[in-house]
Specification:
Layout: E1 2-6, H1 11-22, E2 26-31, E3 43-47, H2 53-63, E4 67-70, H3 77-82, H4 84-104, E5 109-115, H5 139-158, E6 161-167, E7 169-171, H6 182-192, E8 197-199, E9 205-206, E10 208-210, H7 211-221, E11 232-235, E12 241-242, H8 243-254, E13 261-263, H9 278-284, H10 292-302
Parallel strand pairs: 1-2, 1-4, 2-3, 4-5, 5-6, 6-11, 7-10, 8-13
Antiparallel strand pairs: 9-12
Helix pairs in contact: 1-7, 2-4, 4-5, 6-8, 8-10
Length: about 300
């Protein structure tokens, strides 16, 4: 089977591409930059923007892929607040372009990766299940959720199988502090002996999932197309952890004695989130096995 991964040079995408190659899949990657994968000679890479309709079509026409895993996106909530137009260009229009190519070139298996927290907004109850009302509080949450509607629509209109996976807060090796995500930013700061910033009081909570658990599951799910009652699933640990708890754990593992500085929180970021993963457990066998301390330790070790 030949699989096209958009965003295959990104944090999660690069792990997924390596896993696909290791299992013998033929892999095509579309991204704006090339990554140093484990076996780059086995990967066909195209430097293409997913909003470039003509070039995207050329890739699909040439490669004749069997499945698309669509991960290319703006993933930065704070960037979406600064530039909502570009966020919508990438996350909505880019997704429609990919879906149009699937329709035109007969790709009938599609995986879309979304966000578990930003699409929900401030939760009415915790843990948040897949039936929770959605009221995104950022352009990023709106754009990622909007694309879900298009995936569902195309799946129904043009009869292809799809999954929508809504991730918790993913962390692990290869993530960059440039993403402004908590774990890479803090570990990098602690490594350099610098003082990191916490936006808010640090008591806000998140649901952290280790990247290799996520990729391992996605690899297994590829064989489950058409076998489940539902198509949209939450993938997270289902455990509510505060930012301050994470900081204490990262300080312990890194050996840092530096305390962060606390500044005003950012409007548009959800205060508390934890995802109910019961549906993915029942229908797809979701079972993350890396505990938080082990995952942070592996991430810290990857920086050395």
């Amino acid at each position: 089977m030949k699989v096209l991964v958009t965003g295959g040079s990104g944090f999660i995408g690069s792990h997924l591409v390596d896993a696909l190659v290791s299992k013998g899949y033929k892999v095509v990657v579309i991204d704006l930059k090339k990554f140093a994968w484990n076996e780059p000679s086995k990967i066909v890479f195209y430097q293409v923007d997913i909003t470039d309709v003509a070039k995207l079509g050329e890739v699909f026409a040439k490669e004749n892929v069997d499945m698309v895993i669509h991960m290319a996106a703006n993933t930065l909530l704070r960037k979406s607040l600064e530039d909502p137009l570009d966020d919508a260009r990438l996350n909505i229009l880019g997704s429609i372009n990919v879906l149009e190519c699937c329709k035109k070139y007969g790709v009938d298996k599609f995986v879309y990766t979304s966000t578990g927290g930003a699409r929900v907004g401030e939760p009415q109850y915790l843990p948040v299940d897949e039936k929770h009302p959605l009221n995104p509080t950022s352009p990023y949450g709106i754009s990622k959720h909007t694309a879900e509607h298009y995936v569902t629509l195309y799946g129904g209109l043009y009869d292809f199988d799809y999954f929508i996976f809504c991730f918790g807060n993913v962390y692990g090796p290869r993530d960059s502090s440039q993403t402004k995500r908590l774990v890479p930013v803090f570990l990098e700061k602690f490594k350099q002996g610098e003082r990191p910033l916490v936006f808010g009081d640090g008591e806000q909570t998140r649901d952290f999932i280790y990247v290799e658990d996520l990729v391992e599951f996605m690899m297994r799910s590829i064989s489950q197309f058409g076998k489940t009652k539902h198509q949209l699933f939450h993938l997270a640990n289902g455990k509510q952890v505060s930012v301050n708890e994470m900081i204490r754990l990262m300080k312990k593992i890194s050996g840092s004695t530096i305390d962060p500085a606390y500044v005003e929180g950012i409007k548009g970021e959800v205060r508390d989130i934890v995802l109910d993963t019961t549906l993915a457990q029942k229908e797809l066998g979701w079972n993350p096995h890396t505990d938080l301390e082990a995952g942070i330790k592996k991430t810290w070790e990857s920086l050395h």
